[in-house]
Amino acid sequence: MNNTISENIKRIKAELPETVTLVCVSKTYPADQVLEAYECDHLDFGENKVQELVQKHEELPKNIRWHLIGHLQRNKVKYIAPFVHLIHAVDSIKLLKEINKQGEKNNRTIKCLLQIHIAKEETKFGFSAEEFKQLDFNEIAQLSNVEVCGVMGMATNTENTDQVRSEFKLLNSLFTFLKTVHQPNIHATTLSMGMSSDYPIAIEEGSTLVRVGSAIFGARNYL
Ligand SMILES: *Cc1c(COP(=O)(O)O)cnc(C)c1O
User: Fold this and answer.
1) pLDDT tens for residues 150-192?
2) Ligand 1 in contact with 150 (CB < 6 A)?
3) Which of 39, 60, 69, 168 could staple 88 via S-S, CB 3.0–4.6 A?
4) Nearest alpha carbon, ligand 1 atom 6
5) Exposed (0-12), middle (13-18) or buried (19+): which is 58, by Cβ within 10 Å?
6) Looking at the predicted structure, is the pLDDT value of residue 202 above 70?
7) Ligand 1 in reach of 212 Cβ (< 6 A)
8) Residue 189's closest CA among 151, 144, 218, 140?
9) Of 49, 127, 24, nearest in space to 136 by CA
């Protein structure tokens, strides 16, 4: 692939409707490549590991909006709480409570998405659709230092586009469900779905935020 990072970003941005946010997934790529993307007026970056996110936050311009897109352990919330822009993969109420506690300590409200398990694969984290619908949203409403902004999910890694599409449809229906929940700290504005291999389908199915890594930065050495 000979395209530069900036060419890739421009091409992908041109494909996205104006209402869809592009998060450049910079995991495993060095800071100088992130800077190259930043220099084409791009501010949203995603990492899946706390340590790498903290390190890049320290090295790179402070107006970058850092998205944590990977699984988060409760004992690591404190490291990102002072600055993280959006936590995508909240998969338990216990974790949400810890984020709330750290938000309080840092005197800020931390934006979160609830991760839903939509894929066939066992390995992916998140609430099941049933668990999600049965969450105690009144309990979540007590957590005034978090804001639940929507849902996030990953489709099965498959060539079967019908399956991917039906998983995205399910996620969108749960996003619509969340819109009917009225609480001061729950505002369903963000539907985080779509990666390099499936973002065009995700957009057709109503995504408002796509998380794209390898289509911008090139293939990674490991997942
Ligand atoms: C790595 C990752 C992505 C981006 O994957 P690409 O295939 O490189 O676009 C998106 N979402 C999550 C949760 C990831 O871990």
Assistant:
1) 999 999 999 999 999 999 999 999 999 999 999 999 999 999 9
2) no
3) 69
4) 213
5) exposed
6) yes
7) yes
8) 151
9) 127
- Residues 67-99: tens digit of each pLDDT: 999 999 999 999 999 999 999 999 999 999 999
Place of tokens 């490291």: 79
For residues 91 and 98, the answer to whether their CB atoms sit within 8 Å is no
Q: What tokens does 169 get?
A: 């449809």
Residue whose CB lies within 8 A of the most ligand 1 atoms, among 116, 211, 221, for a mutation test? 211
Convert 111-137 to b/e letters by CB count within 10 Å (16 or more is b): bbbbbbbbbeeeebebbebeebeebee
* Ligand 1 atom having least distance to the Cα of 152: 13
Count other Cβ atoms within 10 Å, centred on residue 19. Answer: 10
What is the Cα–Cα distance from 212 to 195, expressed in whole angstroms?
5
